[in-house]
């Protein structure tokens, strides 16, 4: 018997807000966090816009010595984790520490550290490379730093599955609790790759939008005028707890996590499988795991990256899985406002999904002005919508053909 698992706290660092309520209110207001890049000179780059995190002060979450020894993605992850633990009022003690774990992933890891230390190597030589280079760089370090910070001694790991990372981290943490390896998990994703190398790589691949004159309109999932994704950064972390563990301590329960599915496209390193085959199998796996019929899903927080092939493939996958019900359920992409946070996206979108259940309101897909004829579902265009929401499905799909889906349900005792 799988144990029931619930969400009791959340923490967010994002382009539209560095706390849970600012983040959620920005989504409901249809506020875009996409602006011209300020962190480095983008003069020679075709893309000059991104969803940067602003007004982030790491000193609110760690001391100056620790800041110097951590990459920006770790700082984001630690900040979001601290907010989530505080939100949940979870106390990690000597008595329960071995039953509390951490599962925070990153798609790329410490890219800023890699770039900076490579420059040091070339300009000053190998003896000047920081002794903290490796621990600052490696993608598991957000999990490690959070575990150390809170003294969480339970199962601790990290997913690295490109844009599916955050969802895989939450789903894998779910499994650890369901099968009695832990009672609580701090789980999600963190990413900080708005850097010259990442921008150069994605620009060379012609993957990012070049709508530089209208940054706030650049991310436009399912719209005929979309021309690529917009990179974002940040972190989304949730506290997962076994239901009785949460109830015993009087925790406030935000939502229940009832299903998790994975699949591989086994097709191409960057392009989705034809007709969204991998995505469809992933959603079916999640529905089977949850033990629910497709008709029970009310809302899908779509991967919806604003890429030509990706949006069509996801739409085709939804139709394949849900049949006629695909035209009755609501679908929206919050990436239209946040941009694509890569490995962190599954974390913040799980939070958006949980809040949709809490408030019975669906965040919109902004900039949907001329729907692509091949994208003909209800994408909650441009304005948030009140709705009767009981079950929400959240999709994330990553380079390499990695697909991950989680399903949340409105909590019922």
UniProtKB/TrEMBL annotation:
It catalyses: a fatty acyl-[ACP] + malonyl-[ACP] + H(+) = a 3-oxoacyl-[ACP] + holo-[ACP] + CO2; (9Z)-hexadecenoyl-[ACP] + malonyl-[ACP] + H(+) = 3-oxo-(11Z)-octadecenoyl-[ACP] + holo-[ACP] + CO2. Keywords: Acyltransferase, Fatty acid biosynthesis, Fatty acid metabolism, Lipid biosynthesis, Lipid metabolism, Transferase. The keyword Cell membrane does not apply. GO terms for biological process: fatty acid biosynthetic process. SMART domains: PKS_KS. Coiled coil: none annotated. Pfam families: ketoacyl-synt (PF00109), Ketoacyl-synt_C (PF02801). InterPro entries: 3-oxoacyl-ACP_synth-2, Beta-ketoacyl_synthase, Ketoacyl_synth_AS, Ketoacyl_synth_C, Ketoacyl_synth_N, PKS_Beta-ketoAc_synthase_dom, Thiolase-like. One of its GO terms (molecular function) is 3-oxoacyl-[acyl-carrier-protein] synthase activity. CDD domains: KAS_I_II. Pathway: Lipid metabolism; fatty acid biosynthesis. Residues 2-410 form the Ketosynthase family 3 (KS3) domain. The active site is at residue 163. SUPFAM superfamilies: Thiolase-like. Its EC number is 2.3.1.179. GO terms for cellular component: cytosol. Belongs to the thiolase-like superfamily. Beta-ketoacyl-ACP synthases family. Involved in the type II fatty acid elongation cycle. Catalyzes the elongation of a wide range of acyl-ACP by the addition of two carbons from malonyl-ACP to an acyl acceptor. Can efficiently catalyze the conversion of palmitoleoyl-ACP (cis-hexadec-9-enoyl-ACP) to cis-vaccenoyl-ACP (cis-octadec-11-enoyl-ACP), an essential step in the thermal regulation of fatty acid composition. PANTHER family: 3-OXOACYL-[ACYL-CARRIER-PROTEIN] SYNTHASE, MITOCHONDRIAL, POLYKETIDE SYNTHASE-RELATED. This is 3-oxoacyl-[acyl-carrier-protein] synthase 2. It comes from Brevibacillus invocatus.
């Amino acid at each position: 018997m799988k144990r029931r698992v619930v969400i009791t706290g959340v923490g967010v660092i994002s382009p539209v807000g560095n706390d849970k309520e600012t983040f959620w209110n920005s989504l409901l207001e249809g506020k875009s966090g996409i602006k011209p890049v300020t962190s480095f000179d983008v003069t020679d780059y075709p893309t000059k816009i991104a969803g940067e995190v602003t007004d982030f002060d790491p000193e609110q979450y760690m001391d100056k010595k620790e800041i110097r020894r951590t990459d920006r993605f770790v700082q984001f992850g630690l900040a979001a984790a601290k907010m989530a633990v505080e939100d949940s009022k979870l106390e990690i003690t000597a008595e329960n520490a071995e039953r509390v774990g951490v599962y925070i992933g990153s798609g790329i890891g410490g890219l800023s550290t890699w770039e900076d230390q490579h420059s040091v190597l070339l300009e000053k030589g190998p003896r000047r490379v920081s002794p903290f280079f490796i621990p600052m760089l490696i993608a598991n370090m957000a999990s490690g730093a959070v575990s150390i910070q809170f003294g969480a001694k339970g199962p601790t790991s990290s997913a690295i599955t490109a844009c599916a990372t955050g969802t895989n981290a939450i789903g894998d943490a779910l499994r650890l609790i369901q099968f009695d390896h832990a009672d609580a998990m701090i789980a999600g994703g963190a990413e900080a790759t708005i850097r010259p190398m990442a921008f150069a790589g994605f620009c060379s691949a012609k993957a990012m939008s070049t709508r530089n004159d209208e940054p706030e309109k650049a991310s436009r999932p399912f719209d005929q005028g979309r021309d690529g994704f917009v990179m974002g950064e940040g972190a989304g972390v949730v506290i997962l707890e076994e239901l009785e563990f949460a109830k015993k301590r009087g925790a406030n329960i935000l939502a229940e996590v009832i299903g998790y599915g994975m699949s591989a496209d086994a097709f191409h390193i960057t392009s989705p499988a034809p007709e969204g085959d991998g995505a469809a199998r992933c959603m079916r796996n999640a529905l089977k795991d949850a033990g629910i019929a497709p008709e029970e899903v009310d809302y899908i927080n779509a991967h919806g990256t604003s890429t030509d092939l990706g949006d069509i493939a996801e739409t085709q996958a939804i139709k394949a899985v849900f049949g006629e019900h695909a035209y009755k359920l609501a679908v929206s992409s919050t990436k239209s406002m946040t941009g694509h946070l890569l490995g962190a996206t599954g974390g913040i979108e799980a939070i958006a999904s949980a809040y949709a259940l809490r408030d019975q309101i669906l965040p919109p897909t902004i900039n949907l002005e001329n729907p692509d004829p091949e994208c003909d579902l209800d994408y909650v265009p441009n304005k948030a919508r009140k709705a009767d929401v009981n079950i929400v499905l959240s999709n994330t799909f990553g380079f390499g053909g990695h697909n991950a889906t989680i399903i949340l349900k409105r909590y019922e005792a």
